[in-house]
Amino acid sequence: MTLTAGTLLGPYEISAQIGVGGMGEVYKARDTRLDRTVAIKVLPSEVAGDPERRSRFEREARAVAALDHPHICGIYDVGSVNGTHFLVMPHLEGQTLAARLEKGPLPFEQALEIATEIADALDKAHRQGIVHRDLKPANIMLTKMGSKLLDFGLAKLRPQAGPISMSGMTRLVTSAPETAHGTILGTVQYMAPEQVEGKEADARSDIWALGAVIYEMASGTRAFKGDTPASVIGAILKDDLPSITTLQPSIPQTFDLILSVCLAKDPDDRWQSAGDLSTQLRWVSLAGSGQVIATKKTREWLAWSVAAALLLMTLALVLRSGMAQSIAVEPVQFVVMPPEDGTFTGDGLAGSNPPSPQLAMAPDGRHLAFIASSADGRPRLWIRSFDAITARVLAGTEGAARPFWSPDGRSIGFFAGAKLKTIAATGGPVQVLCDVRSPRGGTWNQSGTIIFATGFEDALYRVAAAGGLPTRVTRLDATRQELSHRWPEFLPDGRHFLYLVINERRDQSGIYLGTLDSAETVRLLDTEFRAGFAPPGYLLFVREGTLLAQPFDITAKQLSGAAVPVTEGVGFGGATGEASFSPSARGLAYSARIGEPLTQLTWFDRAGQRLGAIGTPAEYENLSLSPDGRLAVQRVDRTLGTEVWLVDLVRGNPTRFTFDPAIDFSPTWSPDSSRIVFSSNRGGRTFDLYQKPSSGAGREELLLKTGSNGVFPTSWSSDGRFLLYTTAGKSGFDHWVVPLSGDRKPFPVLDSTANETQARFSRDGQLVAYTSDETGTAEVFVQPFPATGAKWQVSTGGGSDAQWRRDGRELFYVATDGTLMASPIKGGASTFEVGTPQALFQTRRPMTRGPLFFGNYAPDADGQRFLVNTIAADAPLNAISVALNWIAALPK
After folding, report:
1. Is the pTM of this model over 0.90?
2. pLDDT tens-digit profile of 466-493?
3. Would the CA dihedral through 296, 298, 299, 305 be positive or negative?
4. Which domains does the chain have, with CATH numbers?
């Protein structure tokens, strides 16, 4: 039954029929209540009595209603009037992709943009268990606001396979592809092999269909063609597609490779999620016409085999030419994702969330060392050989950080458990060389000398690769206001080395050239971050996330020419001066962030059941719940910077609390909830303590200024008398207390050769829980306040970020794998007892960026609910990008 203009369906007045969507007629209508134009999709009366067709129509309503995405056409309403079943959607101005394709292929940039948008939309649907099953150009609307995915009439909420019949599949296709009713759900030209074989469709079937749509957008021709549906099915099952670059030579070869994975006959050989595909497409967009392949976490062997094939073809051409030294080899790029079920472990203070990977390219450019954690959450050293499919983990490297290679590429140096260690690149026993706390980089020369930096003893030290007593190499120049020397790197002669000097005045920090033979130094470059050297003569450094290369004359000890950009998006850090890249003559590795980091404030119960989210995803850190139940949080805004915000736990809306352009973070509430103390560098480079009324009605006032080391609040005693804070001492991080009455003279509470961080008062103020690496691994401890010499270890196997339940009966902490743990507590300062820790749930909190970044969860007063700063569903991954023969791509 066709509806006429003026017909009323409840409050909706029909204007005109505008089309037929897979499961019903579509009308333009006016919502008489809200006075807006809408689209009405109606299940035709002649099939309304069919329970199966009606059920599918109702599934569409439920499916679309469950989705909220800018590239999915949403749903306003669903209803039934006098047996006419309908749903109400936004009225979209534009044209379908099918109509646009009648004019020919789309410009590649537009096709790439639409493909990325639809991949994102599918990823959202798939994450909610919804498979479209009828993705085709007619179900994609092109509007001024971007593309919109339509018609979830065939979406399913639960898997339910059915057999296929080939009867009725021989009709000649003379127009737009149709859905074959009765036996197959979907449109033949865009159906995956498993669908046409009658097997169950899943998310990977949608990925196939999107691959076919992308192919058609870019080439102007359907991926699989035939005179009849049966011949189309035969092509889908048997034929290999012609390369899209043969049809459109201007399209980058990488795009061809991505589509080949989309359209793999076996679902296991495709991208395993639309999110994976979206990542690949974004990389093509970022790389322009460069050859970039991003390996996905669950199927990374596919992309590695592609990269290996490219390398082998390149080498074969060179070898056949007989002129390996004179032929210019084309640059090749690919991206390495973390190991299966793992994450890259980044620099603890590098100012990126997720943290930038720690990595080191081998001198021969054929191997990559990196730090990653696997399922147990413990970081280890991994080696990726570029002629192998997977990375290898090196046993015995638990807790590893900051790897660097020996000059012959046979061994790797790294730091773990407050020690400098080495291990053969092929694996084997670990050698301990010397003690090092808070390492800030190492380098190794041909004569077996290692130079390393430590964050709290300021200068550079040397030690033999066989081990021994370290000796000082550099000394701080007080006349130049130098604070620290770090990130050393030997030059090829093995005598000269680069290093970063951190200065009291930020604009005076820079890269210097030192030598083992004398105290002579040469300033080369103004920068706050480390630099690297690549033969035959380039100095690499980072400015605002762009990696630059500048010619460097080693003999003359000076830079020449202009710095040229190598790539963008390289991770770089704040206080440490770290930058995540590693060059050699043949290969360059650098961090490659995909998207912007987002976390979601979410309530969970003790079983890990999600109770609800607070506000929208953003970059949050250092949660702090007030005694009266309000939330202060550190938030990074790309425009406003790092500030303290207050979040309404009922409405979810955040309000800015601090307004200075400087960095404000680590909010801590007073026991009466009237004030918030935070750390800020608004007075210069050093971080001092400030306080402000929590009502926002007063000005910030300086509470404590303590020189160059910086102070960072962690806990306020319940009687209001004492404030705990972290500060950097000569031997690591320590905890001090400032009395909030009298002369306010601070005194140490935790002051040893270990790093003590994240300290919190118990409710009665008699105990302090804290994190210490005195065992070589971060663990949670408790000691009395004031200190008596007593101490109890709470966690085993790693733990951090301890927080007390309000009544003191439990102490919570986070294990190394992100699991929230609860330890029963009895007694007080003189009778303390800790019970066996109980695992509660996996927090999925972001990787902790170091001892000054904690509070990624907050228990409520009775410890039955937890507000967790959990990784958002669409949070990015950091990756490692590898560029082989990268020097050939530099501007001449």
Report:
1. no
2. 999 999 999 998 888 888 899 999 999 9
3. positive
4. 8-90 (3.30.200.20), 94-286 (1.10.510.10), 291-595+877-889 (2.120.10.30), 599-871 (2.120.10.30)
